[in-house]
Design a protein that fits this description.
The two termini are 35 Å apart. Among the domains are: 1-63, no CATH class; 160-308, no CATH class. The protein is built from 20 helices and no strands. It has helices spanning 3-11, 16-26, 35-43, 50-58, 65-71, 78-90, 97-100, 109-122, 125-132, 137-150, 161-180, 187-202, 217-227, 230-241, 245-248, 252-259, 264-270, 272-277, 282-295, 298-307. The chain has 308 residues and is an all-alpha fold.
């Protein structure tokens, strides 16, 4: 009996302790787990493995996967909705576009950003430009940011050399983080990846949305310090100080549950100082990122990995 079969058999146990232990044993091997089990783990609130399941689903091409993900676009849990968006983007499921568009105004920032990235990859530049003219300004801006983050020369946007360089490197880092987890990135790579990602969140809603999908605020602050962006680092630390450490250590789902106790206006006041301190000009961040990329040879590494 293989190790996977062993854990799968234990997973069907009626003993919740045995079942949980089986999930822990399966987690490093989710790419080999049957789709039926992956979907159960995605839906089941008892197991905090949705991020791992999402990474496994990004690499799957099962015939029924698109249909399963389309059904989960309306799931109660925002992490499930976000993963469903991302997987449909990977599958290039243009048929789901009409179902994904409403999620650009989802109550959860994590879902909105996932929807924006998916929409921006499913349609061409001309279609994207036409679509943005029909959307509210906040949703149109979010789509534009998502497209520029992944394809700096698309959507008719004129980009600087720095933007193109950074975006090319980020494309490779994002793909690796999705496939192998963020732990697969080195410190120099995280110094580029984390600030760019956090800046997109802080600039499209504020730090109150950061904690809907992550709790690594101290790592982000350290990355901004390494870039020489001290105000951004201070803003991250200020934001992190608003959330109890016991909540942060419980993962982003616990953090999101904690934040659900506060009205939106109170959350805005809670993170107001951090949002005001954070640099509002993306060109400054791009320039620092580009300088760091060149200094550490990350563009050359990206080219080598692409060729390989």
């Amino acid at each position: 009996m293989s190790k996977i079969d062993f854990w799968l058999r234990l997973y069907r146990s009626n003993n919740p302790i045995v079942c949980k232990r089986a999930v822990e044993g399966l987690t490093p091997h989710l790419e080999q787990v049957p789709l039926e089990i992956l979907l159960e783990l995605l839906d089941d609130p008892r197991f905090d493995v949705r991020g791992d399941v999402g990474r496994a689903l990004y690499g799957r091409r099962d015939e029924c996967l698109a249909g399963e993900m389309r059904r989960r676009l309306s799931a109660e849990n925002p992490t499930v909705r976000s993963i469903a968006c991302g997987v449909l983007g990977k599958l290039r499921c243009t048929d789901a576009l009409r179902e994904i568009l409403p999620l650009l105004s989802d109550e959860c920032g994590l879902v909105r950003r996932s929807a924006a990235f998916t929409v921006s990859t499913l349609i061409g530049s001309d279609e994207l430009q036409e679509l943005t003219t029909t959307l509210p300004e906040t949703e149109a801006d979010l789509l534009g940011w998502a497209r520029r983050s992944t394809e700096p020369t698309s959507a008719g946007v004129t980009c600087s050399e720095d933007e193109v360089l950074v975006s090319q490197v980020l494309g490779g880092l994002s793909e690796r983080a999705q496939r192998h987890g963020i732990q697969s990135l080195s410190e120099p790579e995280l110094t580029v990846f984390l600030p760019h990602w956090a800046a997109g969140i802080a600039g499209n809603g504020g730090f109150e949305y950061f904690f809907e999908g992550a709790t690594a605020i101290w790592e982000v602050a350290a990355a901004f310090e390494r870039l020489g962006l001290s105000d951004a680092a201070r803003a991250c630390r200020l934001a992190g100080e608003q959330v109890p450490s016991t909540v942060l250590s419980g993962g982003y789902e616990r953090c999101r549950d904690w934040m659900d106790n506060f009205p939106d206006q109170q959350l805005e006041r809670m993170f107001e100082r951090a949002n005001n301190l954070f640099p509002g000009e993306p060109d400054e961040i791009n320039a620092k990122l580009a300088t760091y990329v060149r200094k550490h040879g990350l563009a050359d590494q990206h080219h080598e990995n692409t060729v390989d």
